Amino acid sequence: MEGQQVLIFSASRRTDIPAFFGGWFLERLRRGDLAARNPVNSRQITHFRFDPAAVDCIVFWTKNPAPFMSCLDEIDGMGYKYYFQFTVTPYGNDIEQNIDKGNIIDTFIRLSERIGADRLIWRYDPVIINDRYPIGFHVDRFCSMAEQFCGYTEKCVISFIDRYQFLSDAMRRHDITELSPLQIESFMGQICRTLDTLPSKITLSACCEKTDLAAYGVQRNACVDGELIARIRGVQKKYRKDPSQRPGCGCVQSRDIGTYNTCRHNCVYCYAGRGKKKTACNEDSPLLCDTVDTVNDTVKLVDLRQGA
Predict the structure, then answer these.
(1) Cβ distance 6 to 239 under 8 Å?
(2) How far apart are CA 27 and CA 244, in angstroms?
(3) Stated pTM of the model
(4) What number is the average pLDDT over the span 97-126?
(5) Structural Rg of the chain based on CA atoms
(6) In whole angstroms, what is the distance from residue 229 CA to residue 247 CA?
(7) Stretch 192-206: mean pLDDT, rounded?
(8) What is the DSSP letter of 79?
(9) What single DSSP character describes residue 119?
(10) Residues 6+ apart with CB under 8 A from 3
(11) For residue 247, is the peptide bond before it cis, meaning its omega torsion is within 30 degrees of 0?
C-alpha cells in the first residue's frame, strides 16, 4: 500500500452536492469518471477514472440531504464508503436565504437511522451574532437541537464567524460582528453544561479556531477525518495530513470535486459563492456545472481502476 494514491472525494466544501446535484454525482459514480478544476489555476483539470475499490471514502457536506436520500441504496450497492457532515443552524431566511428548515430535524433523524450516528456529523457552523441572533438565542437553540439529536450523532462541529474580506459588506448589512472572547466563553460554558446532561455523548470539535477551547473539552476538528475513515473501512491505516488547508486544520488529503458559485442556498456568510452563479448541470460532463475547454484547458488523467 505504501506509495499508492489515496482517493478521498470531498463532496464538497465548495457547494452542496447532495441538495442540488445528487443526480450528476450518482451518474459520475456509475461511470467511474469525474473531474475537478484547480481552484488556484482554473485552466488545470484533474480527471479521475476509478472504481469503488480505488475510493477510500466520500465525505458529503450538506444543509439538506433530503433530495439525495434516494441515491444511497445504489451508492451502497456499488460498494462506496461515505459519511455526512450536515449543517443545521437556527438562522432564518435573512441569513440562509434558500433553506427550508421545516423538516430539517426530521431529515437529520431519518439520515441517522439510515446510515448510523457514527457516520453523521452535526455542524453548528458558523456561530454569528447580531441583534436578532444574540448569544442567548444560540445557547437556547443549540441546547434544544442537542437534545433532539441525542443518540442520532456522536459529534458536533462548531465554528465562529471569520471575517473574510469579501464578506465585509454582507456582514455590515446584517450587523454581524465577530464574537469576543467573553461571548465565546459564555456560549461554550452553557452548551457544555447541557451536553454533559445528555444520555448519549455528543463530542464537541472546533474548526480552525483561534480561541483555545481545550478547557471545554473541545477537540481540534478534522472534517476529512482519517481516523473515522479508517473505522468506516474497518482497516488500520494512517492518512496524510492535507498541506493545502489552513493552519490548525486536522483534515487528511482529499480531492474536492465541487465548483464554486454553484450553491443555491445563498447564505450570507458563505465563502464559496462570490461570483456569477452557475446553475446548469450536464450529467454527461465529468465537471460539475462545467465542461472541458479542449483548446485552453490542460487535463491530467489519473486512472486508479484495478488493472489500469
Answers:
(1) yes
(2) 28
(3) 0.94
(4) 96
(5) 19
(6) 22
(7) 96
(8) T
(9) G
(10) none
(11) no
Beta partners for residue 33, in sequence order? 49
Name the DSSP class of 45: E
End-to-end CA distance of the chain: 16
Residue 149: exposure state from Cβ atoms within 10 A (0-12, 13-18, ≥19)? buried
Count other Cβ atoms within 10 Å, centred on residue 63: 21
Nearest-CA neighbor of 61 among 244, 276, 206, 257?
257
* Nine-digit cell string for 129: 451574532
Tell whether omega for the bond before 254 is within 30 degrees of 0, i.e. cis: no
Dig out the grid coordinates for 72 from the structure: 444511497
| 250-303 pLDDT per residue, tens | 899 999 999 999 999 999 888 887 667 787 899 999 999 999 999 999 999 999
Tell me the CA distances in angstroms from 34 to 20, 99, 137, 250, 273, one per residue in order: 17, 28, 42, 26, 22
Q: How far is CA 60 from CA 88, 121, 176, in A?
A: 14, 10, 28
Check residue 289 and give its pLDDT.
Answer: 95
77: part of which helix (H) or strand (E)? helix 72-78
Which pLDDT belongs to residue 163? 65
Buried b / exposed e across 176-205, counting CB within 10 Å, b at 16+? beebeeebbebbbebbeeebeeeeeebebb
Cell numbers describing residue 304? 486508479
What distance in Å separates the CA atoms of residue 111 and residue 101, rounded to the nearest whole number?
15
What is each CA distance from 287 to 37, 75, 214, 256, 281, in whole angstroms?
8, 19, 41, 12, 9
Side chain identity, residue 206: A
Q: Which three cell numbers stand for residue 219?
A: 477537540
What span, in angstroms and rounded, lies between the C-alpha atoms of 123 and 128? 14
